[in-house]
Structures are given as C-alpha cells and as structure tokens.
Amino acid sequence: MIQTLAFYLFAAMVIASAALTILARNPVHSVMWLISSFFNAAGLMIIIGAEFIAMLLVIVYVGAVAVLFLFIVMMLNIDFAELRAGFMKNFPVGIAIALVLLAELVLGIGAYRAGALELGVPDGSAAPILGASNIENIGALMYGRYLFLFETAGLILLVAMIGAIVLTHREQRAPRGHQNIAKQIARQPEDAIVNTKPEVGKGVQL
Amino acid sequence: MTAFFQSLGMTYEWAWFTSTIAGILLIALPLMLAVAMIIYVDRKIWAAMALRKGPNVVGPFGLLQSFADGLKVFLQETIIPSAANKGLFLLAPIITFTVALLAWAVIPFNSGAVLADINVGLLYILAVSSLGVYGVVISGWASNSKYPFFSAMRAAAQMISYEVSIGFTLVCVVLWAGTFNMNGIVLAQQGHGLGFVNGFFFNPLLFPMWVVFLISALAETARAPFDLTEAESELVAGYQTEYSSMSFALFWLGEYANVLLMCTLNAVLFFGGWLPPVEWSLLYYVPGWLWLFIKIFFFFFVFSWIKATVPRFRYDQLMRLGWKIFLPLSLLFVVLISGWLMLTRYGV
Amino acid sequence: MELQASLSLIAPEIVLSLSALALLLIGAWGGDKTARMNSIAACIAIAFCFAIVAPRVCAGVGGPDAVAFFGQFKADAFSGFAKLLIYAGSVAALLIAPNYLERVGAMRAEYPVLVILATLGMSIMVSAGDLLTLYIGLELNSLAAYVLAAFVRSDSRSAEAGLKYFVLGALASGILLFGMSLTYGFTGTTNFNAISTVVAGGLSGGAMFGLIFMLVGLAFKISAVPFHMWTPDVYEGAPTPVTAFFASAPKVAAVALLARVALEAFGTQVDAWRQVVVFAALASIIVGALGAIGQKNIKRLLAYSSINNVGFILVGLAAGTAQGAASMLLYLAVYVAMTVGSFVALLMLKNENGDQLESISDLSGLRSVSPVLAFCLMSMMFSLAGIPPFLGFWAKLVVFQAAVDANLVVLALLAIAASVIGAFYYIKIVKVMFFDQPSGVVLGKSDGVHWALLIISTLVISPLGYLATSWFGDLAQRAAATLFLLS
C-alpha cells in the first residue's frame, strides 16, 4: 500500500518536474525542476530496492552535475525571447517528431499488450548474489566479471579530463606574487621580532 | 518503538507511522534546542578567547541570549527585495534548514538508537550534505544583488571542491569498517587501537584522513577560516545580505545544525561515536548518548577555537588546499589503506 | 578463464595503457618540451604492441583460446590483423605530427598521450566480443579523437571541427546505445556469440530495430552515406596530421567493429542487414565520387575519397562470407597505406614560409618543382582510383570477387561503374600536377621523416606490392576465418 502510494507519488513528481523543466520560462527554474526530477527518480530507485544507485544519483547528479548546471545558467544571460522566436519556425517539425514518437509509443505498447514482442531472457551473467546488499552485488560484478570494462571506463574518464585540460588550460604568462606557504609557516617569531630597550633620545638601529 | 505503540493496540502500519514521527520529533526538537545553546557557547568561547565577556545579560550567565534573539527575529517583518525572485528567495532558507535536519536521520545516538538504520547510511549523509549548497546558491541568485551572487558562486565552487576530499576520506573509513551502515562503523571502532582505544583516529593510516576530514568539514560548513561565502570585509554578509527576520534565522539555524552534524560525524567516524573513549567495562555504565554528546561538544569547541584564532584564507589558497593538497593526499590514502587491508585482512 | 590467462591476452592493451599513463606523467612534470621525446616513446610503445600482436596473427589464433574476460574480449587473428593496421596508422600520425604542430605552436605533451589512448580505444573496439566492450572502446577512441580534432586551439577551424565532431559523434553514440539497449532487451544478452545463438531462430522486431540502430551508429563512425555529413568539415578543420590519423586508423577500427557486429553477433541473420549495408555501400561510393568533383581543398577532397573507399569496403562486408571479410581486411590494409601516403604528401606542400598549402590549384606544375613528390602523389591517386599497376586495383578486385562469389553480381557491377566516376577527380589532380602551368608556390623543404613515410607507402602500393599479395591474402584469409569460429 505504502509502496504503491510512494511509487505513484515519485513517478508523478518525476514526470511533472520533467515537464516543468521544459516549460519553465526562467532557465534557473528549469534547472530547479530538473533537480526535483533527479531527486524523485532517486526515490523510485529506493522503491525497487536499489538504494546504492539512489544515493549515487543524488550525490552525482543532484550534488555535483546540477550544481554546475545552475552555476552556468546563473552566469549566462539567456535571452528567452530570442530563443522563442526560433520556436515557432520549427514548430511544425517539432509536432511531426512528436507525432512519430507518439505513434511509436502506441504501437510499442500495443504490440507488447498483444504479446507480439518477446523480450529476451536474461542470460544470468549478472545475476545477483542472494542475501548480499546491493553495494556488495554491484561491487562483485564490477571488480569481478566486468573488471576489464570497469577499468577501461576509468581510462575514458581520464581522457575526458586530459581533454578538458588540453582545450582550456593556458599557462599564465606572469604568475601572481608567488606564495611559499611552507616558508611562511616555518617563520618563527624570533626571526621577525627583536626586543630592544632603547635609551631615551637614542632611537633604534635596525 | 514500533513494538511499544503496537502494544497500545495500534495496527503495525499505524504504530510504525507514529513511532517514526515520534522519532523525528525526538531528534529535531532537542537538536533545535542544542543549536540555540551552541550559538551561545560559540559566542562565549569566542569572547573568552578575545578576553571579552560575551553575552551575559539575558538570563543567568546570558544563557537565554539565543532565545531572546530568536524571539526578536520572529517578531520582525520579513522584507523581500522588490527585484528578488520571490519564490526562490523564500525557498532558499527553507532548503538550507531542511537539509541540515535531514542528515540526522541516520546518526546513531546509542546502540540501535537510530531513526533510519539503513545500509547506505554514510552515502545518505554524503548525498544530503551535497544538497546543502543549493540553499546558498539559490539565495545568492534569487536576491538579485551583487554581493549575494558573488557569495553564491564562491559557495558552489568551495563546497563541490571539498566534497570531493570528504568523499575520499569517507571511503577510507568505509574500507576499514567494511560497511556503510553508521552503527556498523561505530562498532567497527570498538577496541580498534591496541584492543583498548575506541576510535579510528588511533590508526596511523586513518589519522591523517581525520585531519583532512576535520579541515574539509570546516570548509564544507563555511566556518572560519573558510567563511569566504560570508566574508564580511568583502561581501557584506554574503548570501544572507538581503535576508531578514525568520528567513535569516532559518539560515542561522541550518548553519549551526550543519556545524553540529559535522562535529557528530567527526565523533562517529573517527572517535567511536557512542562508545566510551577507551575499552573499560566501568565506562559502559555511562549511557552511550552521553559519550556522543561529550565528543560532539569537544569538536564544537575545536571549531570555535579555530574560528577565534585562525585568519581567513584567500580564495585561491582555499582552492589550492582543496584540489592540490587534499585531493591527492586522500586519493593516496585510499590506495594505501585498501592495499594494507588487502595485505592483512583479505589476503592477496 | 583464469584472470592470468585473460591478462596475457590483453597484453598489448596493457602496454598501451601503461605507456599512456607514464607519458602523461612525464608530460605533466616535464612540460611541453617533452612532447617530441614523448612522441618517440609512444612510437616505441606501439611498435612493441605490434611485435606482440604480429606472431598471433601469423599463427591465426582464434576460437576459445583467444577469448578473455568471459567473452568480453577477443584476441583472435581477425582483431590482430586490424590492430596491426591501426598501430601502423597511429605510428604514422605520431611521426608526421611534431613538425606540423610545432610550426603552428600547438605541439604539446598531451598529443602522443591522446594518440595512444585513441589507439587503445580502437584496439579494444576491434577485439570486442560484447556490446559493452564495443561501446567502451568506441567512446575511448571517440573522446580522444574529439580532443585531437580541436588540438590547435588558436585555429578557429580546428575548434569548429572538434565541436562538430563532438556533437555529431555524441549523437551517433546515442543512437548506437539505443540500438544496443534494444538488442539487449530483446535477446537478453550482450555477448556477441550468445546474441547470435538467440537470433539464430529468427529475428524479433525489437532486435531488428536494435540491429538497424546499431548499424546507423557505426555507419556514422565510418562515415558511410547517409551519415557522412561531418566528414568533409572535420577533415578540413582538424590539423592535417590528425586528419591523416582520422582517415586511417579509426576507419579500420570502426569497419572491423562493424564486421564483428554484423558477422559475429548477427552472423546467423545475414539477410537482415545485407540490404542496409548494400545501400550504404552504393550510396557511399556514388556520393563520395560525386561530392569530390567540385572540391577545391585537397583535405575535403580526400574526405570524400575516404567516403568513397568506405563504400568499397562495405561491398566486401555485404558479401557476408569469410572471403568477404578477408577482402575487407585486404582493402583496409591498402587503404591505410594510400591514405597515409596522400596525407604525408599533402603535408609536404608548403610555401616558402613553410606554411601549409591545401588548395588543389597550388598543385599545378608540381612535376617541375618536385618531381619525386609529384610522382608519389600520382601513384597515390592512381591507386585510389584503382588503376591497374598499382595495388589499389588489386584491393578493389578482391572485394568485387568476394561480392560476385556471394551472388551479389549487380552490386559489384554498380560499384565498378561508380568507381569510374571516382577516377575522374583523381586523374584531374594528376593532370593539374603534370600538365598545368607551374604556380610556383610550392617551395618549402620537408624533413626526412615525411620523405621516408611517403616513399614507404608509395613502395607498398606500387606494383612491387603484388609480390606480397599471395602471402598477405593468405594471412587475411586465416584472420577472417577466426571471425567465424565459434568460441
């Protein structure tokens, strides 16, 4: 009962938020709706018992990706009137694509209902270990059967990182006053302070 | 607690529901009280270090100062700048406040005394704390004012940077504890140091990670010396500049609840949580939650101490520390710790 | 299926990854002055991989012994053959780049690292035995390629090429992923051999859709018509050594990957994909030939030429037999030599300031300025056109033979007819070089590496190359046969 309620709540929120992401006039509002959509998707993940994926969804998408989205959107001054001007021009194309997608959806669901679509039977290569938590399950697969692919995926991320640096990093021509923190910390009061007792009218020699 | 309500004649669903609500209230209300008192303590410590008296007028020793402040902001008018984005402007402090409370759901106060004893407790904390940045960023943007906006930009960059190293330190803890469950992590620390000291901090491989965590926690909660988001000498009051009355108070409550949370995490992850400091059966007569509170208070004292004594970082120094020192260091320790565990615990 | 056995099978990939990481560290600490040394080190690393793979190809390794990581990776002779070609193309890209990039001020230590990582990606692509491996390898290669295309930051054309390549490549990846998810959903497995077993009984509608989407995604990567639009722009904008790289190694990898998907995963359903491939082949040949005619820029012309050549390679694939796969491999080998040769020749066209010349009119009268260069370029063009004494003719011949043997006579006839159109613009270049008034702009000196590469590739495609055909054909035959071994 509670699961069903929760499912419909989360599912409705995902869809509504996604719709509002597109419909919102203000780009910052769009990002906020997108975040809400991610969040509710994480809720759906919890319902199917994939708590690890749910948490990762929040940490990665909500906590990092969307923040950067927001960061960029706030910085940019997007003129929506201008964007909307192109909207009417492309409207018929959009409608056509939407109709095609709708037709595909209807056909797909119809065919599925009629039993015409036979989904494949999972070959069991990624079958869960019963009784283990899903972190253990995912870990066992990633570091076991799919070790090679997992490590290679790491290389892809490395390439992305190299790419970002190669394309944007510029050597500073004149670096700002260089700060040697170790030197600062190593400096003791004795190095800087001298206590003297000058006689009256004699002044101090430094 | 569910069983108790069931014994009152409720069905299981109702009992569960009531007990959960009761649990939430049991955590949230004392937490708010604690926040009020901790603000007072913060001011007192700070005053003591500056050779001042601090609040001493309202109530005995000024103990009721926070409540007086609370009453004052409660009675004030909420001013919304005319150019602000109204909805988001009001939403921002609510987000900050709510998120600050959310994470407490998985904190164990005693053996089994935890609202949601979930498998991925630590990940949950990481997830929730990563949401904290939204309150700041949204308030900065929605204020439609220069200083809050700068502050929001700083906050976004700062919190994301330090979340990375926090994530890695947590991975180190999880590797050693072998579980993401908060209670499991506490129990894994029992007798960790020579079978006598309770706490991961005693471990030479985890101690540096605790230092990294402590400093990152300061940055994550934007406490001095990393309070660049509200640096009064540059940004007036940062993202809070345009806020007044209750919305301002919510920011304060949320902020201090976050500080307390970070202190708690220090205690739970590295100092044995509700376990007594050392393994000695007599000490177990003291209730676990008291040990936890003592530890939390100790860390809060450390936080205040730092705030009173350390000058503010420059922004580029902040970024340098996060990305060029903590990130490589914590990555190195993830490798070292997993290597050591492979060698000793799991056998290569 | 022990981890050790798997690791020994991916030895070349391990060498590549480790050398990429090592060179990255050297580059990070040593700065851009290490770029040249890094390039040489990268060449040595790739040569080392070449030495690991070559004996396996000669031995014709295949079947269960060559399968690593639960069927996700196949180090059989087919992948080995493709890897040898890829390594050759990558080494060429590493050798020709430093001089060019130094002149435009963009030679940085990351160039060899990115080339190695792209090579690694391709190496994984051709060895894919699983949809996941396919995608991971493809993305590794593509991401590195996007960055390489935009490598000269100061040049807006290069940035445009990078962006265009990235956006369209991401679209293609999306389509490919969609196809893969459909295939997985309707077959219940991502393993190629398992897929072929499941679809042997008949292809369901969903799996059919999956197959088509995957073919579309891969057609994008090999720039087969109708998914070729990006090719001329990217080839023109990217730095010339990088274009040479794009035109050679990734083509080999993507074609070999396409062959794996078509012949291994869907080998039991040849009829399902043959029409698509036949259409793409003919369209590529015709569009490639017609599109090249109006071009004034040599890089754009070579882009259309590569589209045209991909068409011929697909003719071999359309045959759907071991003979067809072997003919594809042979065509690819000759194609790599021709492409590298043409681009090296293009790099050697400089004016007196040492700036690159890219327009066809600059070639006029090249014969009187630099007869050797003109002769080499002529050989390349004749070979690309498939005119008899050169090896390009033999490559086309084996492809057509495979098509005819598979009862695709009409396809072969149409392709031959279309290749005559293609010959027009190749011969036009030869005419410009040998019979037009000298324009006198080509003056720059070229260094030894370029000359050496040009001479080698000219020798390979010259009639001398026929001496090796029987041995080489045999090798390709055996390599292709491993594709049809069940493991």
UniProtKB/TrEMBL annotation, chain A:
The chain crosses the membrane at residues 6-24, 31-50, 56-78, 90-112, 146-167. One of its GO terms (cellular component) is plasma membrane. Keywords: Cell membrane, Membrane, NAD, Oxidoreductase, Quinone, Transmembrane, Transmembrane helix. It is found in: Cell membrane. Its EC number is 7.1.1.-. It catalyses: a quinone + NADH + 5 H(+)(in) = a quinol + NAD(+) + 4 H(+)(out). It is a multi-pass membrane protein. Its main location: membrane. The keyword Protein biosynthesis does not apply. The keyword Membrane applies. It comes from the Bacteria. One of its GO terms (molecular function) is NADH dehydrogenase (ubiquinone) activity. NDH-1 shuttles electrons from NADH, via FMN and iron-sulfur (Fe-S) centers, to quinones in the respiratory chain. Couples the redox reaction to proton translocation (for every two electrons transferred, four hydrogen ions are translocated across the cytoplasmic membrane), and thus conserves the redox energy in a proton gradient. Belongs to the complex I subunit 6 family. This is NADH-quinone oxidoreductase subunit J. It comes from Croceibacterium xixiisoli.
UniProtKB/TrEMBL annotation, chain B:
Its EC number is 7.1.1.-. It is found in: Cell membrane; Membrane. It catalyses: a quinone + NADH + 5 H(+)(in) = a quinol + NAD(+) + 4 H(+)(out). GO terms for cellular component: plasma membrane. The chain crosses the membrane at residues 14-41, 88-109, 121-143, 164-188, 200-219, 256-276, 282-305, 325-343. It is a multi-pass membrane protein. InterPro entries: NADH_UbQ_OxRdtase_su1/FPO, NADH_UbQ_OxRdtase_su1_CS. PROSITE patterns: COMPLEX1_ND1_2. One of its GO terms (biological process) is aerobic respiration. It is an enzyme of class 7 (translocase). One of its GO terms (molecular function) is oxidoreductase activity, acting on NAD(P)H, quinone or similar compound as acceptor. Pfam families: NADHdh (PF00146). It comes from the Bacteria. Keywords: Cell membrane, Membrane, NAD, Oxidoreductase, Quinone, Translocase, Transmembrane, Transmembrane helix, Ubiquinone. NDH-1 is composed of 14 different subunits. Subunits NuoA, H, J, K, L, M, N constitute the membrane sector of the complex. NDH-1 shuttles electrons from NADH, via FMN and iron-sulfur (Fe-S) centers, to quinones in the respiratory chain. The immediate electron acceptor for the enzyme in this species is believed to be ubiquinone. Couples the redox reaction to proton translocation (for every two electrons transferred, four hydrogen ions are translocated across the cytoplasmic membrane), and thus conserves the redox energy in a proton gradient. This subunit may bind ubiquinone. This is NADH-quinone oxidoreductase subunit H. It comes from Croceibacterium xixiisoli.
From TrEMBL, chain C:
It is an enzyme of class 7 (translocase). GO terms for cellular component: endomembrane system; plasma membrane. The keyword Transport applies. It comes from the Bacteria. It catalyses: a quinone + NADH + 5 H(+)(in) = a quinol + NAD(+) + 4 H(+)(out). Its EC number is 7.1.1.-. It is found in: Cell membrane; Endomembrane system; Membrane. The chain crosses the membrane at residues 6-27, 39-57, 77-97, 109-128, 134-153, 165-186, 198-220, 241-263, 275-294, 301-322, 328-349, 369-394, 406-427, 448-468. GO terms for biological process: ATP synthesis coupled electron transport. Its main location: membrane. Pfam families: Proton_antipo_M (PF00361). InterPro entries: NADH-Q_OxRdtase_suN/2, ND/Mrp_TM. Signal peptide: none annotated. GO terms for molecular function: NADH dehydrogenase (quinone) (non-electrogenic) activity; NADH dehydrogenase (ubiquinone) activity; quinone binding. Residues 128-421 form the NADH:quinone oxidoreductase/Mrp antiporter transmembrane domain. It is a multi-pass membrane protein. Belongs to the complex I subunit 2 family. NDH-1 is composed of 14 different subunits. Subunits NuoA, H, J, K, L, M, N constitute the membrane sector of the complex. NDH-1 shuttles electrons from NADH, via FMN and iron-sulfur (Fe-S) centers, to quinones in the respiratory chain. The immediate electron acceptor for the enzyme in this species is believed to be ubiquinone. Couples the redox reaction to proton translocation (for every two electrons transferred, four hydrogen ions are translocated across the cytoplasmic membrane), and thus conserves the redox energy in a proton gradient. This is NADH-quinone oxidoreductase subunit N. It comes from Croceibacterium xixiisoli.
